[in-house]
Design a protein that fits this description.
Elements lengths: L3 E12 L2 E12 L3 E5 L6 H8 L7 E6 L2 E2 L5 H4 L2 E4 L11 H11 L4 H14 L15 H13 L5 E5 L7 H16 L3 E5 L3 H7 L2 E6 L2 E7 H9 L13 H9 L16
Parallel strand pairs: 3-8, 3-9, 6-7, 7-8
Antiparallel strand pairs: 1-2, 1-4, 4-5, 9-10
Helix pairs in contact: 3-4, 8-9
Length: 266
């Protein structure tokens, strides 16, 4: 579809007898800030790895920007950015060296790469750390560098796997502003995080995956209305938080048995 940035059909990934992602079909419109949620081990990172070419699907297909996406889709890969699980930075380089390497790998000329590297290091508040090796960065600094590398080429689609983990509140606010600016310029962002308040503030649409299967998909308002209608005694005007929606859908709320307690702490 012309206005669809990400499309999957029956996307499945197996590791031996384990099916990590099972028959996931979803669509993300161009210019959408899309939240992809699920508990630990639900299949979020595996899905992102397939959507960015880091893992081959066991079954199903996917399209990025309306074109079939696979291991050989080099031109499409130049139009996406990704902050993967674990970040996978080159620790023996400095931050400027790393961004120069990434920019050139994406096909930027030397002058554009130099200019964008300087702007990104300044924006990420890493300009004063230009002589330090990446391996000596704090986790939060490495996260900011990974995000800088993901956007240096101006991607049309950006995949973010826990981008705010370990980032301080000031930097997180700055990054949110940057991401919203990308959305305003027409980029598409696919975000997975456990911080539901961030998703509720930034994302317009959400999908929820549990045990490898998609269990909810739609705008936050659609999910809110759907969950509220199933809760006993819920008022029509009741405004559920995304946390309440998530817990109700995944199964940790809505009449489930109380969580087990630790006897020595009660």
């Amino acid at each position: 579809m012309e206005n669809t940035a990400i499309q999957t059909y029956g996307l499945t990934r197996r590791f031996g007898a384990l099916t990590a992602v099972a028959d996931v079909t979803l669509s993300v419109a161009s210019g959408q800030f899309f939240g992809f949620l699920g508990p630990n081990g639900a299949g979020k990172s595996t899905t992102i790895k397939m959507l960015t070419g880091l893992l081959e699907p066991s079954a199903g297909s996917m399209a990025i920007l309306g074109q079939p996406f696979g291991a050989g889709a080099l031109e499409l890969k130049r139009q996406i950015g990704v902050v993967p699980e674990g970040m996978a930075l080159l620790g023996r380089l400095t931050a400027p060296e790393y961004l120069h390497f990434v920019g050139r790998m994406y096909g930027l000329d030397r002058e554009t790469t130099r200019r964008r590297t300087e702007e990104l290091l300044e924006f990420m508040q890493l300009a004063n750390e230009s002589r330090k090796l990446v391996t000596d960065f704090s986790h939060g600094m490495q996260k900011k560098l990974a995000l800088a590398a993901a956007v240096i080429h101006g991607p049309k689609v950006l995949f973010l796997d826990e981008p705010f983990e370990g980032v301080d509140a000031i930097a997180a606010g700055m990054l949110k502003t940057m991401l919203l600016g990308m959305i305003n310029r027409g980029a598409t962002i696919f975000l997975t995080t456990h911080v539901l308040e961030i998703v509720e503030r930034l994302c317009s649409h959400v999908a929820i995956i549990s045990q490898g299967r998609l269990v909810a998909n739609g705008s936050i308002e659609e999910l809110r209305a759907g969950v509220a209608s199933t809760l006993p005694g819920a008022e029509q005007e009741q405004r559920l938080t995304l946390e309440e929606i998530f817990l109700s859908i995944v199964g940790a709320g809505g009449g489930q048995e109380p969580a087990q307690e630790l006897t020595w702490l009660t």
